[in-house]
Amino acid sequence: MASEVAVTIVTVRDIFQDEAGRKSRFSDEYKNLSALIILDKQDLAQLGAKDGQKLLVKNDVGSVIVAARTSEDDAHPGLAFMYNSPWSNQLVSDDVCDGSIPGNKRIKATLSIAEGNVTQISELQARMQS
Amino acid sequence: MAICTGCSLLCEDIVAALENGAFSHVKNLCRKGHSHFQAAFTERTVPMIDGEKVDLDRAIAKAAEILKSAKSPLLYGWSNSTLEAQAAGIRLAEKLGATIDDTSSFCQGILTERILSGKIPTCTLDDVRNYADTTIFWGSDPSSSHPRHLSRFSYYPRGEKRQKSYEEERTCIAVDVRKSATAKLCSNYYFRVAPGGDAQFMEAILAVLEGKIPKVGDKKKMIELSSVLKKTEWGAIFPGLGMIYSLQDNMELFERLLAKLNEITTFKVIPMVGHYNMRGFNELMLEKTGFINRVSFKDGAVAHGPEHSALAAAKTCDTALVIGSDPLSALPFGTARALARQPLIAIDPRRSLTTDAAKVVIPSAISGLEAGGTAVRMDGVTIKFEPIIGTLLLSDEQIITRIMEAI
């Protein structure tokens, strides 16, 4: 077991999360479908974490606490997925290349077991105003 | 029939009946469209200044005052507005000497620009329905982003030359970093690439098409792919952000692949544009300024470049007008925070992180539901629509016009 696991996060879309966001950005439904990270079984095992475990995801840009979800895809250790949302954007660098394309598809971050609860949308809003 | 402005397919066959201020019956809406329609009745914005409710005239006057006194305003959003509103927005940017940009700036713009300039061959979605026997979803997942794409155009329908359709005549291929809902549908023809590995995969396809051994991927599977591509009578590629973000400034490689495919057979490209009128903004900007996005009108001249992209301008502007977009949700944290620190003017029908942070909020009618207008579908087809819900709310075009008059 490791206290930290390094992953590359790719942001992707999901129809159910999109639907929840269209209904309300401030609902529990949207938070529950957005504040999560989809991980390979091997990465979860390395952390000693289970499905639904709260994880701290952090990098040079920021940090966020989200829930872990076990991937149903073929094995992809070291590769994680998050849905596009204010939670994933906490970790995206805006230090863009010449094409002005941000780094949503290759976010380097580390994971560890979190002490607290999933980061609330109100906290993300407060960070923007700070 | 109503038009759904939930995505850039602009589905024209929506049946919606209203009763007591709510939809009593809807037909043909996808999950995304259904939530777009239902959202018309929840979390609507009201005119506000500094978090206090005001009347609409005051909110418009305050917006005009902020913009008039700004030295380097940014006008951003536009992809969820009609062509009429976009045209008014470009006029406002000219009048203010502002920077204007839309979501295509970090989305499909890099590809749309090549399509509009003729560098990349394209077609309509109706052509795809009628003729395509091979469709490639490259870094795109229409089952999540454009749920009726497969049923209306690219896989299931019986087109003019494809009466046996998906059962016998259509092959779908997915290239993605994950087995998305669409990739699952493509089963035997799902090709997994590593993040940033799309260029290598394109090189591998070019190699097998030329009879060489590919450097990446399962060789047997790559040869099978080459065989499918060579046998294709009429193919279509639908690139999503997965491909765009992976290739970044290496779009010439995609052009090389297309040139090679078109030496052998016919292959067209339609970018999987997300917002309902992103392409309209690109076309209009090209016509008015010579550039599809990222334009500054400072000192009466037209300047274009990455320094005028919303991502860059968010950090250099002294105010921003955001219309029909929620950059505080959708953009990288640093950009969102830079915008949140500006005196923001948000024109939006519904509450968002951006309207919560805005100094001035101006509520607008929802295009397609409460306001009519014109938009350009992802494939360049122009679609007109009429409102289906009566409202006293102003359209985006009317709001921009009122602000311009007040200035």
How would you sum up this structure, described in words?
The complex is a heterodimer of chains A (130) and B (407). Chain A has helices at residues 15-23, 28-34, 41-47, 86-89, 121-129, and strands at 5-12, 36-39, 54-58, 63-70, 79-83, 107-113. Chain A is an alpha/beta fold and 130 residues long. Chain A has one domain: Barwin-like endoglucanases (Beta Barrel), CATH 2.40.40. In chain A, helix 1 packs antiparallel against helix 2 (28-34). The radius of gyration of chain A is 14 Å and the shape is globular. By secondary structure, chain B is of the alpha/beta class. Chain B has two domains: 45-105 and 276-406, Rossmann fold, CATH 3.40.50.740; 109-269, Dimethylsulfoxide Reductase, domain 2 (3-Layer(aba) Sandwich), CATH 3.40.228.10. Helix content of chain B is 40%, strand content 17%. The mean pLDDT of chain B is 95. Chains A and B meet through strand 1, helix 1 and helix 5 of A and helix 1, helix 6, helix 12, helix 16 and helix 17 of B.
